[in-house]
Amino acid sequence: MRLHDCVEIAAPRQQVWDFLSDADNHRLFMAGLTRWDVKTGPHLEKGSRIDMRMKVGSAPVGSLIEFVECDPPGDMAWTSVTGIDQRGRWRLRACGPDKTKVELRLAYQAPGGLLGWVVDQIGARDVRRNLHRSLKALKDQVEAESAPARAPRAG
């Protein structure tokens, strides 16, 4: 199953990258996460490993993932080491002054041949919803960080 979604964030690409490359921040915006156990340091880079699970239906599914590409400030990709076969990619592209298009791609395949394919089709709705909610939450988090501090009201 291949899924993708994208969002435009009102922040410079480097700021979005800095937020995404901090592994601890993923707990703040990734919808459906039931486990996000960082096995390496908090800064995501090539070779970083994370044991992750996402709720799909009533079951937490996931993998031990390893980041296989980190090309700041544009691309970050991972693949599964164990667990559900999956590959994912964050793509960040400047789309104007202080605006960034963020795309999240995910490809996964449950084991089991035809039965696995059926499970993928059923679970895709939940995974698609989680991707969409995650990107919206990422947008909200990053834009809140970049919002100028407001002066207190005189009163």
Order of helices and strands: EHHEEEEEEH
Share in helix: 25-40%
**What is the number of E strands?**
7
Largest sheet: 7 strands, antiparallel
Main-sheet strand order equals 1-7-6-5-4-3-2
Share in β-strands? 35-45%
Instruction: Note the total helix count.
Output: 3
Integer count of domains: 1
Name the CATH superfamily assignment: START domain
CATH class identity: Alpha Beta
Average per-residue pLDDT, rounded, comes to 88
| CATH A-level architecture | 2-Layer Sandwich
CATH fold assignment: Alpha-D-Glucose-1,6-Bisphosphate, Chain A, domain 4
End-to-end C-alpha gap = 57 Å
Radius of gyration: 17 Å
Counting helices, strands and paired strands, the structural category is alpha+beta
Write a concise keyword list for the protein shown above:
3 helices; 155 residues; Alpha-D-Glucose-1,6-Bisphosphate, Chain A, domain 4; 30% helix; alpha+beta; single chain; 7-stranded antiparallel beta sheet
Structural features, described:
The mean pLDDT is 88. The protein has a single domain (2-144), classed as 2-Layer Sandwich (Alpha-D-Glucose-1,6-Bisphosphate, Chain A, domain 4), CATH 3.30.530.20. Strand 4 and strand 5 form a beta hairpin. Helix content is 30%, strand content 41%. The radius of gyration is 17 Å and the shape is globular. The protein has three helices and seven strands. The chain is of the alpha+beta class and 155 residues long.
